[in-house]
Description:
The structure holds 3 protein chains of 3 kinds. Chain A has helices at residues 6-37, 41-45, 59-65, 68-99, 107-119, 124-133, 151-162, 166-174, 179-187, 192-208, 211-216, 225-233, 253-276, 283-289. By secondary structure, chain A is mainly alpha-helical. Chain A has a single domain (66-285), classed as MetI-like fold (Orthogonal Bundle), CATH 1.10.3720.10. In chain A, helix 4 (68-99) packs across helix 10 (192-208), helix 5 runs antiparallel to helix 7 and helix 7 (151-162) packs antiparallel against helix 10 (192-208). The two termini of chain A are 25 Å apart. Mean pLDDT of chain A is 87; it is low at 282-290. Chain B is an all-alpha fold. Chain B has 2 domains: 1-57, no CATH class; 60-296, MetI-like (MetI-like fold). Chain B is 73% helix and 0% strand. Chain B has 15 helices and no strands. Chain B has helices at 2-35, 49-52, 59-66, 70-88, 90-100, 105-116, 123-133, 139-146, 158-186, 190-198, 203-228, 235-239, 247-250, 253-262, 267-295. Chain B is flat, with a radius of gyration of 24 Å. Chain C is α/β, with parallel strands linked by helices. Chain C has 2 domains: 3-21 and 33-167 and 350-393, D-Maltodextrin-Binding Protein, domain 2 (3-Layer(aba) Sandwich), CATH 3.40.190.10; 174-344 and 458-523, D-Maltodextrin-Binding Protein, domain 2 (3-Layer(aba) Sandwich). In chain C, 45% of the residues lie in helices and 13% in strands. In chain C, the strands form 6 sheets. Chain C has a 6-stranded mixed beta sheet with strand order 2-1-3-14-4-17. In chain C, strands 6-11-5-12 form a 4-stranded mixed beta sheet. A two-stranded antiparallel ribbon of chain C has the order 7-8. Residues 1-43 of chain C have low confidence and may be disordered. Chains in contact: A-B, A-C, B-C.
Amino acid sequence: MIAESRNEKIFSATITILLILFSVIALVPLLSVVATSFSSKSAVDMNTVTLWPRQFTLDSWKYMIDRPDLWRSFFLTLVTTLVGTVLALLMTALFAYPLSKKEFRWGSVVMVAVVIAMIFKAPIVPYFLTVRGIGLYDNPLVLVLPHILNPFNLIIMRTFFKQFSKELEEAAMLEGCGYFRMLFQFVLPLSKAVLATLALFYGVVLWNQFQHPLFFLQNPDWFPLQIKIRQFITDDSVIMSGAASTAALNYNERTLRATTVIFAIIPIIAVYPFLQKYFVKGAMIGSVKG
Amino acid sequence: MQSHSLHRMKVYWPLYVMAVPGMLFLIVFKFIPLAGSVIAFKDYSVFRGFIDSPWVGFKHFGTLIHHPDFLRVFTNTLLLGGFKLFLVFPVPVLLALMINEIRKAALKKGIQTALYIPHFLSWVIIGGILFDFFSLSGLFNIILGWFGHDPVLGMQESSYFRPVFILASIWKDAGWGTVVYMAAISAIDPQLYESAMIDGASKFRQIRHITFPILLPTVLILFLLEIGNFLDLGFDPVYNLLTPMTYNVGDILDTYVFRTGIQQGQYSFATAVGLFQSVIGFAMVYTFNRISRKVSDGGLW
Amino acid sequence: MKLKKMGMLLASGMLASGLLAGCGGKDASDTAAPAGQDRSASGDQVVDVEVWGTNIGYKPVEKSSKLYEFYKEKLGVGVINPYVEWNGGTNYLNQLNLKIAANEMPDLFVPQQGIEDNLAKNGAIADLTDLLPEYAPNVWSAIPEDIWKVVKANDPTGQGRIYYIPNVVEYGRYASMIRQDWLDKLGLKMPTTQDEYVKVLEAFRDRDPNGNGQKDEIPTGGREEARWMDHLFAMYGVAMFEGYPDWDLYNGELTYSATTPNMKAALEFIAKLYKEGLIDKESLLNTKDKWDGKIQSDKVGNYFHWVEQGNLIFENLEKSTGVKAEFAVMPVPKVEGYDGFYTMKKFASPLWVVKNNKDQEKLQATLKLLNNVYDKKNWKDLYLGVEGMHYTMKDGKAVKLPDDKSTQENQILNPATSVSTLDMSVELFNETASADNKWAIDQVTRNMEEAQKYAKAIAGDGLPASIYEGYPDINNRTLYAEYATKIILGQYPIDKFDEFVEKWNKSGGEEVTKRAREWYAKVQQ
């Protein structure tokens, strides 16, 4: 090893310090949400909560965790996210691979179509009627099917496939390997980084979706998590005369909102470290050698 | 010639088969509904349907352009779009290059996780956080107080709106944006760095000559895609930060069409505005794609 | 091995595409008859009706759910109320339009943004003129004659037919509430003129009425978009409904209050209050929960809202701070040259429209439902809802349970939003008060009676949303909100107000005013 120069040491240290600073900035606002979810409604009303809980209470969390319908939504969303992500990766890989090949004659036409599909947004009414027309109204499949291909993600995967080592593929082709085998046996195993990336992209969209279920689902048994959460996030109110009292409760809309927000992002944060290992430098090269 | 194309099909048919599900998807979920965009040129009524609603030509586009505030709305959209493209877009690239320099694996993972967390907060929540941040009892005014400065309610000041929007966009998505670049960097052969170090290349030279060139195709493609949504900033990010006091700098096409089209069920008008944004976006992608094909060999098609 | 794995992947790929192509046929039969649509086949003659309306997050009313059974028993009709997110009415309107586009209009629903006009013109909703007296006499008689007259004038086909059932509120719901206990503590009397009012606000600001030694009092204030501070506009005779400028007679002609000299004077006054720290510095940023939070932390001296929801605030205030606050209705302070009032709209908005059902059985069931909902005998039960879900029995008295969106089904048929009278509302309060909250309920009922003194119905009451057609930004008050807020903050000088009026007129205000006056002439006949 060659000793690092003084300049480079300063360079590295500066970068490290800056990134740690950025991380703090990224996390501090979230801290205030966490603090709110653990505070009493009086403390929140008084505006005393900033970065740590005041009048600490678990009541908002208890309320949330005791809701059976929330857990149902939670597991439903978990399943649709997993199934949807797997399907989406498969669809995207199958489509991106030919698009990355010069031998695929329709490539440029299809790419223009893909870009159009990305930029132009379909008006809501025809979209609704089409998706309904193929039988997805009040059908839980609507939580998965519309999300299994995204033009943006498709283009990203295609870009990665294009940078693939030509020599490797040619060698495989010479051995009489067909395109399907090529894709599944060589290309995909070496594309863990981009697959992990797109798994994240698709997973997050599937996890956070609310527009499709809002428009297409009537049966509340199929409502995903975000619909439940939106019940607390919107600031609507209606007049309700009569002597209903909320004074006995230790939570209010603000604390519940904070709780739902944290509740919904915990799983997705928990998944990240598992995908992260695929981003580690040299993952791909290692697998070629092995 | 014929035997040649026959030969092509014999060898290449799997490529075409692979593309079938994707194309089917695009047709069903994108192109059939997109055909409904004709309502931009009609007075669409839900009772009459797509066929029977009367044609009105470019009436809705005229309404948009002749709106008294059109110039203001359009300028705001262009400015915010431009800031997003030139100030927000490069940040993830820089961040990825920086993260790549961190040696300690645990620290690297920790930083990455921290930076990408804000992405999972929706804009409604971020709006709420920002309004709290700039409130009288919020962190911003507490810090101003340390310097003996009078409190400023940032969210009701026009001059704050654009910086707040840009910083909030960076805060939310820059860490997330690094994911693609980190994946690209992971594809770099470590041997390249090793030999560069043996040659005595400095860190900066390694970044300039190894890491960045490998990132470039990805950056270019993402830039092209970003340009396509140049005028389409999305409704949520702006709307959730907007107050009547900041309309003059923050009212953009998306918020305008929400108020005047979507909120009132005026689908033809909303579609016309959407087409206006998309056509300009597509024209930009088309142009830049040609340029990029000329100067490099990368491009979308 | 690898080949086998590949085959599996391939197979699942095929499966995916198969689903895409195949599910159309398979599911069409499932979705053709959503739960709520099929007629009750059990032979008990109960017809199900799909009802759409406001739901701010409660559970839907589904076939055989508790509230469904309750409605079936009380009203003799099955009510299905699917969950449609309200979101300020925007999402609701969108989903309603999608339903209509798919030819599946609900049987009974709340219209939004003047959509009833288009529905009537296209024959999509029932002409109720003859149906109501015959099949729903309770509806017919519950709504006063003069209000039906307005509904007839609003017929978009111009034939004086009735196409919707309006929402009727027969009393003033709004008032400015002031901390009587603070006034007493500081030895001040209830202000009756503007000068006295300003002095009171100054005293609230400077003399520590909440007694915590800190200068944290907020004399008065409001919410974002210059809303819910109507009391500050009211003293200048500005017609203002929940913070939205409204239409009233100025110089003998129906005029949009935002463009009147009264408004200019009011804004100038409010800007002065803002500058002197007499209204909350964050007034124009407060969301509902922020502003309620401030009131509930014993900091706010005076606020404007629904009188009848005061108990929620009073009880939370006590819970948070231990202070049993006393709020009294503040008379509209007198300003020389102006007649002040708190705006009252008897005719708040179109409440129900009925689908023009070809299916006579459904149509009859819908009318039966309406008739029974408007039957005064049912009101208390409808208000209380399901025992154990919406209310509970305590010492032999029915006590409403606190709002809980995770367990309560949406009380879509709520008499409080249909025809409300003061007597009925006060009675409901008295009957459901418990020993614990009687002190708060008593304040509320007293204030409700008191508020009537200052409520005035405006001339623009019942003006249809269709007058704004083609001018959505006028309907949205966009221009008003921008100028009003900037003037209040001092970012614009008051002279800018004239620029606003000019712009407003040019951008469609003139045309809208013309339509409004035509409508008024028609109603006056």
